[in-house]
Amino acid sequence: MRIPKIFFFTFFVLLFLSIYFLVFSSDGINTFFLQRKKIQELESKIEDLRLEIENMQRRIELIKGLDREYLEYLFRKFGWVRKDEKIMKLEQDFLPNSEQIQE
What we know:
By secondary structure, the chain is an all-alpha fold. The protein has one domain (5-84). It is 69% helix and 0% strand. It has four helices and no strands. The chain has helices spanning 5-24, 29-64, 68-77, 98-102. The longest helix is centred in the middle third of the chain and has 36 residues, at 29-64. The protein starts with a helix and ends with a helix.
């Protein structure tokens, strides 16, 4: 008993259609790999932003603590002070009190 050619033809058409939908559909394998790649890119961006935030917080703490060396570094970096100039150390007597600011 012979199998008609139409069955082979429909079998291969259905096989290729199922492979196509398996690979390129919204739930397919290709989409999984693309989403995994995007997730890795986003995780690397998040890590970079986290490190940048930590650096900013460290700089804010240094500026709030009036760390003289860091302030000198900033002033020299932005060109506010020349290399040969010295920055005077701030004394508590010269800083305005909260009462003087309110008046």
